[in-house]
TrEMBL record:
Coiled coil: none annotated. One of its GO terms (molecular function) is FAD binding. Pfam families: FAD_binding_3. Residues 4-339 form the FAD-binding domain. Its cofactor is FAD. InterPro entries: FAD-bd, FAD/NAD-bd_sf, RIFMO-like. Transmembrane segments: none annotated. This is Pentachlorophenol 4-monooxygenase. Keywords: FAD, Flavoprotein, Monooxygenase, Oxidoreductase. It is an enzyme of class 1 (oxidoreductase). It comes from the Bacteria. Its EC number is 1.14.13.50.
Amino acid sequence: MKPQILIVGAGPTGLVMAYNLARHNISFRIIDRNEGPGQASRAMAILPRTLEFYQQFGFADEVIDRGIKMEDVYVRVKNKIKAKVHLGSLGEGLSPFPFVLTFPQDDHERFLLEKLKNLGIEVEWKTELLSLAEHGEGIKTLLKAQQEETAYFKYICGCDGAHSTVRKQMNIEFKGEKYKQHFYVMDVHGSGEVMKNQKISISFSNEEFLICMPVRSKGTYRMIGIIPSALLDQNDIKAENIQTFLQQTFGAEIENINWFSTYNIHHRVASRFRQGRIFLSGDAAHIHSPAGGQGMNTGIGDAINLSWKLAAVLQRKAALSILDTYEEERLPFAELLVNTTDRAFKRMVARDKTSQFFRKHIFPPVLSFLFRFPYPRHKAFTILSQIRIKYRNSNLSSGQGTNVQSGDRLPYVEGNFESLQSLNWQIHVYGTAAQKLKKSMREKGFSLHEFSWNPYMKKAGLQKDALYVIRPDGYIGFISSEQRIELLYQYLNTHKILPFTNE
């Protein structure tokens, strides 16, 4: 079958895009200019919402087995613990995965490549996009591997990173700025208080900032921090310089350095995520600070959101207009990250006296106090985990609920996420579904899942006997409190929604 989509870039975003398209039997090519998958650990954190997506794919447990669960965060000031946060208690009952997982990006990419290979999909390495242009009802591209090739596709997904060729070819503005500070990242073997008990450690001294977390095998740690002021004038900062600084400032005894790099951090968001038949996802569309591990996970969320919509349109299972909802759903969240997480990170790493006072004397005690109470704990988890992402203003969200609204992620209650592995539209009723509704959905080919009502459902915000239309990505598309079938049909007909398969 002739490829309908070109995916440019085989990092986590492009690989997840490819996997979901393959699961929906969409033909595509995926190219990357590099010789093979990355060799460095780079992005580390896999957040609960990403694990929920991987549960839909059927391989969340495999990922968890290969990674390290991070259930605790310690905040240290001048090597003394000032706050402890247990992540497991933060997300208890909110997600089947109430923790952060560390899984090095190179291992992560190889895992996804393995899954694609099982589906008969191979990345075309050492292949780059030279040019692209709208051509009738598709895109004309010029690709280069060993030789140049002209190829035509219906859609292009630019997942090719911060220096995206796709974005530059389309002249899409990449708004934002660079942080003033220069940063280092290193993977090490060592010991010391900041490398103890397989915890995430956030440490502050007067001007300095350090994040330390375990990676891979026991005794290997990722360290991220600001290059000390005293070293900024050096043209070539070496790992040994940082090693000495870490020992003197944070008591870190580093025995072996596996990887070291210095870099600048930007926060930027593309002015558009879509231009005609061309889409941007992941770092090609937005880049963020490393705070909270939001960047890579946001890219994976982009890939999930776009891939099922492309599949639905190409299979004529939804109206062409649903592609408009990709940008209207994903761009606002990328901008929200800049205004929240990135802004907070800027405050945490600033070297002025006010910021120093805040992170040493205000942040730890306030964190300890707030996290004694259930509401702040749960609120923090929804933000960190990305389960708070909502699409309430999307044209694909309709109908009124009580606490839970259309456009929200389907709240987790025991047993209700298993059916999402179909990657298909489905109907949920928490309570009793009317026989007329059951018969109607059976005739239309939509699966209907009826869950016996219990108090946990009310606590999760679900409404007894309401009808919920669940999208293939696990978000609520439509709600009817009274199971009104005519309104359900109106929603389905407006967007020309058909199930991917007759279940």
